[in-house]
Amino acid sequence: MRKTLTIFICLITFTVLGQVNYKITYTKSSNGKLIENQDPIIVFSNSNQTLITSQFILENKATYPYEFSLIDRKTNNVNQLAKLKSNKLITTLDSTSITKQNFELLDDVKKILGYTCKKAKTIINSNTIEIWYTNELNIKGGPSILGQNLGLVLETNRNGNFIVTASKLEKTKQFPEVSKSEKVLDLFTYRDELWKSRFTTIPVFKEEIINFSDASKSNDSIMRFANGTIAVRKISIPAIAKGSQVFLDVTEQSNGDAYDRTGSVFIIPMQKSKSFFEGLQNGVKALPIYDNGNGKLYQGIAATETYSPLLELMRFFTPFGIKQYNTITLKDKIWEERVNYRQDVSELTAALSNQEVYIGTFIGNYDKGGHKVSVNLTIHPEEEVTIAKPSTVLSLFNTNNVMEMAGQEYGTLFNSDKGLEVTFNLEKDLKNARIRYITTGHGGWENGDEFVPKRNSIYLDGKEVFHFTPWREDCGSYRLYNPASGNFPNGLSSSDYSRSNWCPGTMTNPVYIELGDLKAGSHTVQVKIPQGANEGPSFSSWNVSGVLLGN
Q1: What is the mean pLDDT of residues 33-48?
Q2: Nearest in space to 25 (alpha carbons), one of 121, 142, 140
Q3: Which residues pair with 33 in a beta bridge?
Q4: What's the Cα-to-Cα distance from 144 to each of 34, 67, 157, rounded to whole Å?
Q5: Cis peptide bond N-terminal to 381, omega within 30
Q6: In this structure, are residues 500 and 531 in contact, taking their beta carbons and an 8 Å threshold?
Q7: 334-359 pLDDT, tens per residue?
Q8: DSSP-derived 3-state class of residue 525
Q9: What is the pLDDT of residues 110-152, one digit of tens each?
Q10: CB contact at 8 A, 526 and 463
Q11: What's the pTM value of the predicted model, to 2 decimals?
Q12: Which of 109, 301, 331, 357 has its CA 20 to 30 A from that of 350?
């Protein structure tokens, strides 16, 4: 039967006959200044072992996770331990890190705490590390694993601007007894568990198939719509501490589809009496209609008094057949196995924190195999709050027709003078207002807006406040993500061509439109784009989404 793990360093003291124990306190300074409110490094050492810990750990004040090390002086084995939470300790055994260290031994000498120290230098990951050590005490140790066999390290200097120096050295009869986990992890597993314990991961989808098939059905946790091209899941998100960073991670592989496709991860706002969820359940006719006078009706794209459109977290684009078509061989081409998209969505914290939210993902495709997608949210705590996150997050418009495979109209509304016009009402004044704007152009062929730069103009209450021409010229950088991309007689691949703010295998970053301070009351935002004319059956369209942020 396994013993219960003791997950702390307990100061159970013992005395070994003839044994001399030393306790060394180290303080840290940066750019010539002592770091304020620091947790001093504490090292205990004798001829048998060395413990590297800290003052906060010894006083049970350290925050999780934290690490400490116990070194066997006879074997040079390092027991690396990490306390991830109150009831979880992990450990790994490292038998090589000390013995594989290489140093240039120099002639420099100086005194630290009255002891004569010699100097050694090494370079690690382009960092120059200088170590000052003494042999006058006949013991080994130091504030890190580095330099453990040189003697007793009393100072380390990294790049001349970060210095750890011994501030106190004393003999002691006490040596902490360290409780260790019975199960020893391999080094990579240990590092992975320690890394993941530093933040909160909220799984949304794991290798979910996004395809076009009548066989795509909902289950108890994941709802499928539009013949399987949309997946939605209700997620419970904990309260997000002030200042925390929130990231969205998406990975994609082809599961059969060879083409570049529009993808999106979104939240379905549920605060108003109507929501996009009604359209998913009952069809696009259940969504509010936007009519700009061009003869077409656009479903669910604009905010009204009773409805909020999809709040887009990320716009991404699949490459041409990554993974599924890696069997295509070309000289000097080694295809990537998956595409990873990662985006900071911290500014949308107010729409996520301490709520149950419907999060969905969409990839437009007509393939039975489709695509394989994983989605996670990660929450990373920050010690200091430097920039306040917006307290107001309001979805204004989203013309990305995620229900394309269920009849939702393409974003072809910019062929009229009105374009897209949305009126919204503020109950209170809004400071530092801005629009988080995502835009990508699509469709046509040689003269389609996907391949022709077009100016986007944004108006607030009738006055132009911003304009730019969205365009990407770096698409050729992602050739190795696109095994099934067509090759042309001019030596280019389809995935090489510049596009209207996107490339196959990339995500599209938001643009921020500063509006200043807005007074309470009614305001109107208008988006105008000179959309290209139809060419036979080919047409151009624009997927634009806008979220109002402010405090």
Answers
A1: 95
A2: 142
A3: 30
A4: 19, 11, 12
A5: no
A6: no
A7: 999 999 999 999 999 999 999 999 99
A8: strand
A9: 999 999 999 999 999 999 999 999 999 999 999 999 999 999 9
A10: no
A11: 0.89
A12: 301
Beta-sheet strand order (sheet of 463-468):
420-426, 521-528, 456-460, 463-468
Q: 414 by DSSP, 3-state: which?
A: helix
Q: How far apart (Å, rounded) are the C-alpha atoms in residues 250 and 241?
A: 23
Q: For residue 119, what are its two tokens?
A: 């100097």
Helix (H, G, I), strand (E, B) or coil at 291: coil
- Spatial separation of the C-alpha atoms in residues 156 and 340, rounded to whole Å: 38
> What would the two tokens of residue 188 be?
């990579």
Q: Which is more confidently placed, 13 or 97?
A: 97
Angstrom CA distances, 250 to 335, 421, 469, 531, stand at 19, 31, 27, 31
pLDDT at 13 over 80: no
- Number of continuous H segments (helices) and E segments (strands) in the chain: 3, 34
Q: For residues 107 and 119, give the distance between their C-alpha atoms in angstroms, rounded to a whole number.
A: 7
Q: Report yes or no: 505 and 499 within 8 Å, Cβ to Cβ.
A: no
Closest CA to 134 of 151, 120, 155, 122: 151
For 417-445, b where at least 16 C-beta lie within 10 A, e where not — what string? eebbbbebebeeebeebbbbbbbbbbbbe
Give 386's pLDDT tier (boundaries 50, 70, 90). low
Token pair for residue 286?
């259940």
Query: Measured between alpha carbons, how far is residue 25 from residues 29, 131, 162 in Å?
Result: 14, 16, 17
Phi, psi of 190 (to 5 degrees): -60, -50
Question: What backbone phi and psi angles, to 5 degrees, belong to 519?
Answer: -80, 155
* Positive or negative torsion for Cα 428, 429, 434, 439: positive
The 3-state secondary structure of 198-210, one letter per residue: CCEEEEEEEEEEE
Which residue's entry shows tokens 């990662």? Answer: 342
How far, in Å, CA of 304 to CA of 393, rounded?
Answer: 15
| DSSP bridge partners of 130 | 121, 157
Q: Per the structure block, which two tokens stand in for 62?
A: 């350290």
Q: Report whether 466 contacts 551 (CB < 8 A).
A: no
Q: Name the residue with tokens 């006055």.
A: 463
